[in-house]
Amino acid sequence: MPPSRLLCCALSLVFACAAAPPPDVERRVDQLLARMTLDEKIGQMSQGASLGSPVSERSRQEIRAGRWGSFLSTIAFADRAEAQRIALHESRLSIPLLFGRDVIHGYRTMLPIPLAQAATWDPALVEQGARVAAREASADAIHWTFAPMLDIARDPRWGRISEGAGEDPYLAAALAAAQVRGYQGPSLDAPGSIAACGKHFVGYGAVEAGREYNSAWIPEILLRSVYLPPFHAASDAGAATFMSAFSAINGVPATGNEFLLRGVLRGEWQFDGFVVSDYGSVDELVTHGYAADQADAALKGVRAGVDMEMASNAYHAHLKALVAAGKLDEKLIDDAVRRVKFRLGLFDKPVPAAPDPTVFLAPESLAVARRLAAESAVLLKNDGALPLAGSIGKLAVIGPLADSPLDQMGCWTVDGRAGDVRTFLASLRERLGADRVIYAPGLKTPRDTARDGFPAALEAARAADAVLLFLGEDANMDGEARSRAFLDLPGAQAALAKEIAAAGKPVIEVIVAGRPLTFQETAAQARAVLYVWNPGTMGGPALADLLFGDAVPSGRLPVTFPRTVGQVPIYYAHLNTGRPPGPNDLGIPLGTPVDPHGFLSKYIDVDYTPQYPFGFGLSYSTFEYSAPRLSASSVPLGGRLDVAADVTNTGRYEADEVVELYIRGLVASVARPVRELKGFARVRLKPGEKRGVSFTLSTADLASYDAHMHLVTEPGAFQVWIAPDSDRGIPGEFRVTQ
Ligand code: GLC
Predict the structure, then answer these.
(1) How far is the CA of 278 from the centre of ligand 1 (A)?
(2) Annotated catalytic residue: which of 122, 168, 272, 278?
(3) How far apart are alpha carbons 547 and 527 in whole angstroms?
(4) Residue 174 domain-assigned?
């Protein structure tokens, strides 16, 4: 059995969490625990931040002493192999090290950022992407990824909205399970599998004002109905680990939160894997004002149920003394180590073999990345300018983001390499021939305010038949610690767009960003707008496929786009309020006399509706939806209802259409949102083709939390839509009866 497979076996023992491990494994864990000193147990609960490269003498000594159970951010394979060799052959108990890494959206083959992947509404494809990432990472002796990130986010000011699946718990839950399946494969000891880590448990996406690491105040009913479901789905899919969040939820830091970690995760969900803290978040319990000192932080972390401390050393420094002082029961430590499930001595000592280089950027992996990039692009506007004719004469390509590998890959590009990226510009030159592409960046970077590049860009536009204008953010504007108070195009990009529009040529805007941006004036100047997010290594070929019609845009927004940042938070699943505005109750021009009819839930200075709604996305084709057909007008509790609608491709292109199922509970003991996503399906239709698309809803699917935190389906009237997005569609009505 090859060493790497042996180590995978170790991992299957290490993470035998999905089902209760077989009794002989438990017996061996007991035997191992009985042999471990308290120091060695505490070592298994500690994840080191850096091995050093090459492995430092200090790391060597500490590994021999069993000081660490895991490392993150180890740079090179050779360092991991050497560290593993020391652990297996020079430590007392030969417990292998666990190497964790941020494989957030691909390893060497960089996939689109997670928010982009969410825009595919294609769990099967997202699962394939995670599989590609796991195959490459495991070949490089990475055992564990700190992904999927499952934080629901309704505030695009928060930079980490880029890392998750957007605003909706149903979509996010489907993608959470898909990623866990992709990373962990058929079993953790299967070749190409790595352990998943659902993060950041929980509610981190609700940080106030979108300000990073800020407090989050979430009523339990919202915690349970919006923020917890993706984590529950990941747990049900067998996620091996979870990571506790930095932020305080209702005043209690997630990393010290017994209610969340022991009450919900372990108690209600029976999760049997292990929990790792976030980077230094155990130490930060002191900074939060929740722990008196580092010893108190260590005590609260273990008691809350954090089994492994990432990067800080509170456990190593204090747990032994806490046990000796009778403040901490060693059984809690045994339970933590058991959950980390190190069971060794059961097989030969594998040191990972050097990876087969052909596993990286393999053609089949690049093909998955290209499909994800194509399916994640959302067509927000098109007056027919797209697709471009292959016979087009010259194409002006303008904007620094057209030729920026790192920005094309986006945030959390840890092992992706710029040299591997097929850039937008290179792919367009390849598609059209270099002589037909005129490139003028116009700006040095997306944040550049100097306009000396404008004349050349204008000249390029004038010399071309059409303009591709690349706009957006640089990759360092998204991700962790990248909160923005404004969502506008950075730098002088809006000015550049205005200048280019004046050239009078058809402009197609390609937006490269890790979050919703507010750019309606710029969008108004374009014939078409394609939101490609950060599409990764194969973003260039995918864009060429889309622009020239080899692929038809099918992406749908996983998050609402505001008109202005002043509308945030804005999301589709909002309550109706007592004074809902109508479709025409838009902004009231200032100076209008007080009009009691204007006393509605809206703004006086901007249209209260979003720029683009959740679930929205255009195609090159057009589709018509019939009214929904219901199998009954009422359904008894415990029953099921079939809902169907005909979807017709009324356009000229064969295309995929994401069909979305929404419901609304019209009356409940706790008022319910005006729409809730409860299903979706991707259908491919030829021009003129009509397909009946049907969904089955059980009354359990209609449940909501009441004021006592009971998840119940309350009898009453419901509406249901089969629609192209959260804003359109013809409602059907039915009742749930006792
Ligand atoms: C970071 C992030 C977390 C990441 C971890 C390790 O601070 O919050 O998502 O996995 O540290 O890099």
Answers:
(1) 6
(2) 278
(3) 13
(4) no
